[in-house]
Amino acid sequence: MRKIRTYQDVPHDTGSGLLEQVLDQHHRLAERLALVRSVVAIASGKGGVGKSAITANLAAALAARGLAVGAVDADLNGPSLGRMLGVSGARLADRASGVEPARSPSGVRVMSMEFLQEEEDAPLRWREPSMGRFIWQSTLETGVLREFLGDVEWGELDILLVDVPPGTDKIARLLELVPDLDQMLLVTTPSETSRFVVSKSVRMAREAAVGTVALVSNMAGHTCLECGHVSDLFAGDGAKRLEEESGVPLWAEIPFDPRLGAATDSGTPLVITDPDADSSRAILTLADRVEEHVGIREDGVVEETGS
Amino acid sequence: MKFLCLDCDDIMKFAERQLPGDGTLAAVFKCGSCGREMAMLTNPMETQLVSSLGIKIGGREVPAQPMELARTSLEGGRDEAFVLSEDIPLTSGAPAAQGEEASPGEATAGRIVWTSEAAGRLERVPSFVRGMVKRIYTDWARERGVLEITPDIMDRARTELGLEGM
């Protein structure tokens, strides 16, 4: 049998220009993110835990402190960040150097698939062959997320928040694009099921050597608006158990508050309209922690792991 | 992906790219030693996979445009999503900058203008991709010292750049 050389043994210059184009994409993304001091992912792995509402409120809280904040809605199939930050229907300035993000009333620069879709109730569809979507859809959506990060004129930012949709594969997708992620906030609830799912994301973040990983427990109790009594929404203490088992610190416990949902539904984050609400105070505490950790990696300080 | 000429044990180099129809992508590769040619044909799903990477076999004729993949791939793109910035005025013969006036057909040195026919044709391009398309034509004209963009110039640029559907 004749011996055929391996891919690596054959010279790379095929004239097809594929490798050069891929490298150019990475280069453009790196150039854009070089102006961002800290990229912070808000993820979970689990759906329905309130990642987007936390992202919107956290972004508004950080911007209210005078920080330059951007927010990317990485949920291409179920975008909500634009609505929650009050920029639904925003139009984006189109320049050769990039697309200018929407600017929320709270000062957050926002990019979301919502801005690009004509019909509000239209599911995300691509104008390509309907057969074999599994072959190319994830690749295409990763490419579009790359454009959200790299083709948007974010300018100089202190913090760029990325609202990551459910599924550990979506976390992996972001890490592929931003391998040196500075912080990852993993949102969970006190429920045991949530602990079980989010533990997978903890492991993924650890293995990817994300600069700082922290837990956020959402819907951690419910405060009665009439009498102030705090009751549990979920049986168990899954978030605290996850903290103990993994050594990842629990940065905030955000109580359930229907006003938080109502405020984000109307595009006015509760941290702005009612900063004294219990849930707002918890998110402001979270903002403290996030802000404290901006630039930690670039300053050479050992990252906190909670161990 | 590489192609090796087994007779010569030499890398085959990209020679030509075509979209012959039916979603097929044809990429021709040629052996540098013996001159043998072969064409790689992809089915529509494979063509889409390559396209989903945001790359073109054989290299790009024009630089990647901001949000190009989203704009060219999204079904139901919002007409009002993008606002053309001042450096790419949409109206026929509009000034290139600083609010100066220029009449249609004017070909002032250093300024590229669009005839009303060319501008009209551009306005038929969906606004979701119009800014990107206009930039591509304008850059093509600028690189060749063309000061006035006409429908004929658009045709030439489209053919040269392989801008299917633009």
Description:
The complex is a heterodimer of chains A (307) and B (166). Chain A has 307 residues and is of the alpha/beta class. Chain A has 11 helices and 11 strands. Chain A is globular. Chain A starts with 17 loop residues before the first helix and ends in an 8-residue tail after the last helix. Chain B folds into 2 domains: 59 residues, N-terminal domain of TfIIb; 100 residues, Helicase, Ruva Protein, domain 3 (Orthogonal Bundle). Chain B is globular. Chains A and B meet through helix 1, strand 3, strand 4 and helix 4 of A and strand 2, helix 1, helix 2, strand 5 and helix 4 of B. Strand 3 of chain A pairs parallel with strand 5 of chain B.
Approximate strand percentage of chain B: 15-25%
Q: Which residue ranges of chain A are poorly predicted, with pLDDT under 50 across at least 5 consecutive positions?
A: 298-307
User: In percent terms, what proportion of residues of chain A is strand?
Assistant: 15-25%
* CATH class identity of the largest domain in chain B: Mainly Alpha
Given the C-alpha coordinates, what overall shape of chain A results?
A: globular
If helices are DSSP runs of H or I spanning 4 or more residues, what is the number of helices of chain A?
A: 11
Query: Biggest interface in this structure?
Result: A-B, 54 and 54 residues
* Overall CATH class of chain A: Alpha Beta
- Count of folded domains of chain A: 1
Through-space gap between termini of chain A: 56 Å
Which fold does the CATH topology of the largest domain in chain B refer to? Answer: Helicase, Ruva Protein, domain 3
